[in-house]
Design brief:
Oligomer: single chain
Low-confidence stretches: none
Number of helices: 3
Shape: elongated
Number of strands: 11
Mean pLDDT: 86
Largest sheet: 7 strands, mixed
Radius of gyration: 23 Å
Strand content: 35-45%
Distance between the termini: 89 Å
Helix content: 10-25%
Order of helices and strands: HEEEEEHEEEEHEE
Length: 173
């Protein structure tokens, strides 16, 4: 009769644990990598100059400018959209942010016409750039978690796009 060697059994258990740990770490690494590809601006650095604040954003793999930011002090993810007249907030996210739904308005989107609701954002923050009292829409048909940062916010800034990056500048004087 052959008996199992205790060292062999422990070796197999350690091998299984090592493989499990390796798979876990690889999953964490690639999940973080994928998130950085979708939003290369998770941490936004600001440059302060004499009378201005600048934020430089890198474009993601699809050429969109996506960035972490805040609405009324709560973390959100923005997609800058110069084709949008107003800031557009998905309805589910608007409920989380406790935004009031005001007067109904017809909204034209890439998916057709839908009804949205006017609202105002007390404070929008992107890096150290802070915008106050920004006109926005709560849009029931807007999928996902991203807030479209439209021209009602962007018109308060200077912006320049060059070589895959977007420079936003807020004058402070």
């Amino acid at each position: 009769m052959t008996q199992a060697v205790p060292g062999k059994r422990a070796g197999r258990v350690l091998l299984i644990i090592a493989w499990g740990a390796g798979l876990f770490l690889a999953t964490r690494f690639f999940a973080g990598w994928e998130a950085r590809q979708a939003n290369p601006n998770m941490a936004v650095d600001s440059v302060h100059g004499d009378g201005y604040i600048e934020v430089r954003l890198a474009g993601n793999g699809q050429g969109h400018f996506v960035s972490s930011g805040q609405i009324n002090g709560q973390a959100v993810q923005f997609m800058l959209d110069t084709g949008a007249t107003d800031v557009a907030v998905p309805q589910r996210l608007a409920a989380e942010l406790q935004l009031e739904q005001g007067a109904p308005v017809t909204v034209s989107t890439a998916n057709g016409r839908t009804q949205g609701y006017r609202t105002r954002l007390e404070r929008v923050q992107l890096g150290d750039i802070q915008l106050r009292d920004v006109r926005a829409l709560v849009v029931p048909g807007l999928d996902g978690e991203q807030v479209l940062l439209g021209m009602s916010a962007l018109k308060k800034l200077e912006f320049t796009q060059r070589g895959g990056s977007l420079l936003l500048r807020q004058t402070t004087k």
